[in-house]
Structures are given as C-alpha cells and as structure tokens.
Amino acid sequence: MKNWFKTVRTLVWKDLVQEWRSRDMLTAMLAFAVLALFIFNYAMELTPANRAEVASGTLWVVILFAGTLGLNRSFTAEQDQGCFDGLVMAVPDLSAIYVAKAITNFLMMVFLTVLVIPLYSVLYNQSMFILSFFTVLLLGSWGYTAAGTLISGMTVQTRMRDLLLPILLFPLLMPVNMAVVKAAGGILAGLPASEISVWIRLLVVYDVIVSVVGVMVFEYVIQE
Amino acid sequence: MILEVKALTKRYGRRKILKELDLTLNGGEIACLLGPNGAGKTTLLRALAGLASIQSGEVSLDGEIIDFKDQTLRRRIGLIMHQPFLYENLTGLENLRFYAELYQTNQTGEALKTALERVGLNPSQEDPVRAYSRGMKQRLTVARALLHDPDILLMDEPYTGLDQQGCKLLNQILLEEKTAGRLILITTHELDYTRQIADRFITLHLGRIADEFENHELSLDRIQARYQAITAPREIAAQEPK
C-alpha cells in the first residue's frame, strides 16, 4: 500500500511539473473561464434581487466547462507523447494512474476556482468568500474529476475522444450539478443548514461511489 | 529462460494480423524479427508485452502460462516502441528518475547519471527532452528501457534515429545484456547492424512465421535473397493496378 501511494505521488509530481513548465491546460482553462464570465455578465441583466439565485449556477457552469478542457488534455497529452503505454508497463497497480490523474485534475480545478471566485465577485458584485460555499465547490469538483477522469481514460483511445467525453460525462454529472447548484445557492441565499445538508450528503455519497468505482474498473477501461 | 508463443491470433476488426503464430525465444539470445511493413511485427511485440489483447493462443514463460493482467510480469519487460515513452517537458535525468521511481529501483542520482553515460548522453545534460534530437531521444529511450534490469527486452526498430556511433553503442549494450542472460527480441530493417549481434533471424510475413535461421548459417546476400523471395510477391501484387 505504501508503494501504491508512492506511485501516485510520483505520477502527480510528474503531471504538475509538466503542467507548470508548459501551462497548456491552465492557460486554456483560465482563458475560457474568464471569457465565459464576461459573456454571462453581458448576457444576463442581473438585479440585486436575482443576483444570488443565479450566482451558484453560473459559476458552476463556468468551472464545469473550463474543467472539461483540462480533462480532455489529461490523457490526450500522455497519448500524444506516446507515454501511456510506458505508464501501463511501469506502474505496479494501474489504479494508481487513475487516482493520480484524478488528483491532478482536481488540483487544477481548485486552482481555477480560487482564481475565478474573486473575478466573479467583482464582475457580478456578489460576495462569495464563504468557507461553506467553497467547500461545496470542492466536493463538486472532486465528483466531477473522479467521474471525468474515468470517462477520459475510456474515450482517449477513440477517434472522437473530444466529442465523446462531454457526451458521456455530462449525463453522469447530473446529480453533482444539481447538488452543487442547490447547496451553493442555498448558502448564498442564507438558507438554514438543515435545508442544505441533504445536497451536501448527496455530493459526499456521489464522490465516494464514483471514486471507488473508478479505482475498481480503471484497468478494464483502458484495455485495448 | 524460455518464452513460448503457441497459436497466437490477433485480430483488428475482421482482419487477422497474427495467424496462429508459434514462436520460441530463449534467454541469452538475440532474436531478430524481420518482415515487411504491415507484417505484424509491432503487433506481436505489443501482444508479448500485454499491451494488445489477443483473441486466441497462449504465451508462456518457463512453462508457466502468462496472465497479461499481471503487472508483475509486465514490469519484467523492457520495451522500446516507435514512440519513446518520454516526457518532453522533463529533462533526461528527470525522465529516468520518474521511471526509476515507478519501477521502484531505488536508484540514486549517481546511478541514473551512470545510466545516461552508458548510452552516451552527457549526464550534466539538463535540457528538457523537447530540445533533444531524434537520436538523443532514442538513446534516452534505451536507457529508460534498461533502467529496471528487465529479464525480457522487446525492441521495435531500436536503431531508428541513431547515428553510426549510436548504432554501434546499441549493439555493444545489447551484447552486454545478452551475456547477462536477457531474452532479446528486436524488429528491424537494419540488417547490417543486426547481423553483427543477432543469433537468429525470424521472418514474419502475413501474420505467420515464414522463415527462421541461425545468423551464422547464411551470408548477408543469402539472407536478403531469402527475405526477398518470401516477401516480394506480396509487395508486387499490392503495387499492381487493379
């Protein structure tokens, strides 16, 4: 088990160093997120009354779509450099590849969220610096990356991988989307914890189930 | 060490790439797989490495049938394919360190530098791999494939991109590995270089072993003539207008 964690750490280190030196994924994700925020800002005429209602949904959609760009690249970059077979030959347990990719994608999402929240707050005049709000986004991001990494591993060997990923992934994300928007919206609207907790529980259960399934089936998903 | 392939069949869709192929490879031997483009050489190597699923047949190592889902076996193989399995944004040393950690070889920085020196790469080379020439990448690929002291070496056209000095160095390394008892299978079109080290030549054609002989049995001209006799009819037929 110690070796498994060491392998995951090594894979995450490699992905982060690669990304830090190329900044391919982060630049694309961030550029998309900023553009989407501006477009939504112009497209929707928000009043102080409805601002809080749409905030969580708008922000989550921006993070979700920007994250898809990163997910698409996470395995494609391995394939393009011909390294995926090298990983399969070298790792002691193939599930370590899944977990490492999911962690890297999650860290990208967290980084993106940290940058997007202040920008959203300024553009939409809506304060979002609430710890519970950020926690909900983190839970949603993990569910998203856990499911997305699995589907990305599945579609990377297909010719239509760029199209297939969102088509297969978005239906799977329905529970996450619903729970994040409801919970985060509830927090911004100041609803009592009892009304929000059901959505947070749903997020936690979803995260656990998808992560366990991902670890269990990843080696079958990537087989030729 | 003996690797036996029995009745191995591999299909892509309806097309059979490998057709009930039988092959025996021995430790301490360099076997060279010849064959025209599309003969199934790369597919055979991928199948032996467990990267390509097979439809029927079996592969056994020292009499034990191999379960390709077993990662322990995969980790006994050093593999060189067309793509180098290297990360462009990492340096040569970082690439080796990365694979050494995955293989859990516990190699120190000095050992990794020695591995780089063995393939003729300057250990102080701290440039990212994207700045390497094709030949330098191939040298690093050889170092990467040998890093974990694999029992089996599967090499798909390992001379690609190497200059003359690099080809000679590779031959020297392969002879050292052979002496250490490794089982080595090389696919190549570079007969001049493989003639210097190969023990056996195997010609793969249309998914089957079409010819097999010891290196010392024939001269280079005879090898080329035999190879042409086996593979030419198909190439001529393919070029004929319909």
Short description:
The complex is a heterodimer of chains A (224) and B (242). With 224 residues, chain A is mostly helical. Chain A has helices at residues 2-22, 24-43, 51-80, 84-90, 95-124, 131-155, 161-172, 174-189, 193-221.
What does this entry look like structurally?
Chain A has helices spanning 2-22, 24-43, 51-80, 84-90, 95-124, 131-155, 161-172, 174-189, 193-221. Chain A is mainly alpha-helical. In chain A, helix 1 crosses helix 5 (95-124) and helix 6 packs antiparallel against helix 8 (174-189). Chain B has 242 residues and is of the alpha/beta class. Chain B has helices at residues 41-48, 71-74, 92-102, 109-118, 134-146, 164-179, 191-195, 220-239; strands at 2-12, 15-26, 29-34, 56-61, 64-65, 77-80, 152-156, 183-187, 200-205, 208-214. In chain B, helix 3 packs across helix 4 (109-118). The interface between A and B is medium-sized, with 26 and 31 residues.
Give the biggest sheet of chain A.
Answer: none
Average of the residue pLDDT scores of chain B: 90
* Protein structure class of chain B: alpha/beta
Order of helices and strands of chain B: EEEHEEHEHHHEHEHEEH
Radius of gyration of chain B: 18 Å
Mean pLDDT of chain A: 91
